[in-house]
Design goal:
With about 325 residues, this protein is of the alpha/beta class. Helix content is about 40%, strand content about 15%. The chain has eleven helices and ten strands. The strands form two sheets. An eight-stranded parallel barrel has the order 1-2-3-4-5-6-7-10, surrounded by four helices. Strands 8-9 form a two-stranded antiparallel ribbon. The N and C termini lie close together (about 5 Å).
């Protein structure tokens, strides 16, 4: 395995300074954010698509430092029915084209989340259809069969034409694919080009065991994010795992994203990566730092130190 970083974690730095910082940290690659919810601080997709010399300059800046491109990331909601979805769809198409031109074979993104019916205007994350209301099952059928699966059939076909080999879908909340089971529902429908970006932080706050998830995924692990979460003592016990407070209200939330090692200890991380490797994954692990309990620099250095000690080389 090799260590990379999601470049948004260093979004305050200009492109070449970001690359220099990555090298100083002992990180071997970059997961470049191209669009979606990201402002894409280090890539102008239109500019790179239009200019072969600028693509050469872009690659030279990375390769001359001994770095690799782990993936292009375009995380967003391309299935939103409004202007946001239109933008994220367009960003996704540009990312596929750019990946082909740069020789990048893997795209990290999210599955998307549609509304619950053709008449709705707002995406709807349906997490329970146990008993009531019974119409929710029909809503899920609409989201999957009439929106998501047709979209992903088309997207994978276009990506293959550009030389993209893998989509790694982050198991993020408020998306149709948010755990292994939902990943397999999409993968079974559109093929093995679709796999999971296994991000343990989200599974942890949802109450799953990411190590067990890795075993269940097997070769459907297409990418891994090095990101931790901590269930906050005295908070989660009272209010449970679902959390609606703002992400920066860290002192009052039931759980928080934290630097690697500040939620699960190093023994846990070593077992996690050992099992991931045992399942056949031997590729990039991208640090995604969203710990608001400390400075960005401290969070990145803490996480890099923990990941360097635990990933399976």
């Amino acid at each position: 395995m090799k260590l990379s970083i999601c470049t948004d974690s260093l979004g305050n730095l200009p492109f070449e300074k970001m690359l220099d910082t990555v090298c100083e940290l002992g990180i071997e690659g970059v997961e470049m954010t191209v669009g979606g919810w990201s402002s894409a601080p280090h890539i102008n997709a239109d500019e790179l698509l239009d200019s072969e010399p600028k693509r050469r300059q872009f690659l030279q800046a990375i390769e001359s430092r001994g770095l690799g491109i782990a993936a292009l990331n375009v995380s967003g909601n391309p299935l939103d029915p409004g202007a946001l979805g239109a933008k994220h769809k367009a960003d996704t198409e540009k990312t596929i084209q750019l990946a082909g031109l740069l020789g990048v074979r893997k795209i990290v993104m999210m599955s998307g989340l549609p509304p619950a019916s053709a008449e709705d205007r707002i995406p709807n994350w349906i997490t329970s259809t146990i008993s009531w209301p019974p119409t929710l099952k029909d809503c899920l059928d609409y989201q999957w069969n009439e929106v998501a699966i047709p979209y992903w059939h088309g997207l994978t076909s276009r990506a293959k034409e550009c030389g993209v080999e893998k989509f790694a879908l982050e198991n993020f909340s408020s998306m149709l694919v948010w755990n292994p089971e939902t990943l397999f529902r999409l993968r079974d429908a559109v093929g093995p080009m679709v796999g999971l970006n296994l991000d343990p932080s989200h599974l942890l706050w949802m109450g799953a065991d990411p190590i067990a998830s890795a075993r269940a995924l097997g070769d459907a692990i297409h990418h891994v994010h090095g990101k931790d979460a901590r269930l906050e003592r005295g908070k989660v016990d009272v209010n449970g795992l679902l959390e609606f407070k703002p992400i920066d209200d860290i002192a009052n939330r039931s759980w928080n994203y934290v630097a690697v090692g500040c939620g699960q200890d190093l023994q846990w991380w070593k077992e996690f990566f050992s099992v991931v490797r045992m399942m056949g994954y031997n590729d990039w692990v991208s640090l995604e730092m969203e710990d608001l309990t400390m400075s960005v620099e401290a969070g990145i250095r803490t996480s890099v130190n923990a990941l360097q000690q635990s990933i399976s080389r």
